[in-house]
Design a protein that fits this description.
Layout: E1 8-15, E2 21-33, E3 42-48, E4 52-56, E5 63-69, E6 75-77, E7 80-83, E8 89-95, E9 98-103, E10 108-111, E11 121-125, H1 131-155
Antiparallel strand pairs: 1-2, 1-5, 2-3, 3-4, 5-6, 7-8, 7-11, 8-9, 9-10
């Protein structure tokens, strides 16, 4: 069996001086566990650097490494927003056991493995750059509203 790197990332929020918060991506392996004083299992990313160190991260931000790199050599994770060389923009998701790129107003999905030879570029991710996906959502909503208006008009 070929060896592959299985790792995750999650967003950790730190309190810094003056009441400010800082968000940092933690990369390592994922474990859901309880710690002393926690109300239940929490999402943790563990990093091995001179021993294991675990960081509690926001569970909704955890994404797995796809095993693929973009054109700049950056690792592609779930929830990354990618640009294809034809101008399409989509989001990486895990669906039915495979990583896919979902894009377009009608939610077209392409298997990430099938398009790995195209020039994929990471633009950001859905947690830090949600505005990159807003445009297609607005278009989708506008088309749906127009469709509903037309149906309403035809009924009256």
């Amino acid at each position: 069996m070929a060896e592959r790197e299985i790792k995750y990332r999650g967003l950790k929020t730190f309190q810094i001086f003056g009441g400010e918060t800082k968000k940092v991506w933690i990369y390592g392996f994922y474990l859901k566990r309880g710690t002393y004083g926690d109300p239940g299992p929490q999402a943790h990313i563990f990093v091995y650097e001179n021993g294991y160190e675990g960081y509690r991260v926001e569970s909704e931000t955890i994404g797995q490494f796809t095993g693929l790199l973009d054109i700049e050599g950056k690792e592609i994770y779930e929830d990354d927003i990618l640009a294809l060389n034809d101008g399409q923009i989509g989001i990486v998701e895990f669906h039915n056991g495979c990583f896919v790129l979902r894009y377009g107003n009608n939610g077209i999905s392409l298997y990430l493995y099938d398009i790995r030879d195209r020039q994929l570029k990471i633009l950001g991710n859905s947690f830090e750059n949600p505005e990159l996906l807003v445009e297609s959502s607005i278009e989708k909503k506008t088309r749906a509203e127009i469709s509903n208006e037309n149906e309403f008009e035809s009924v009256s």
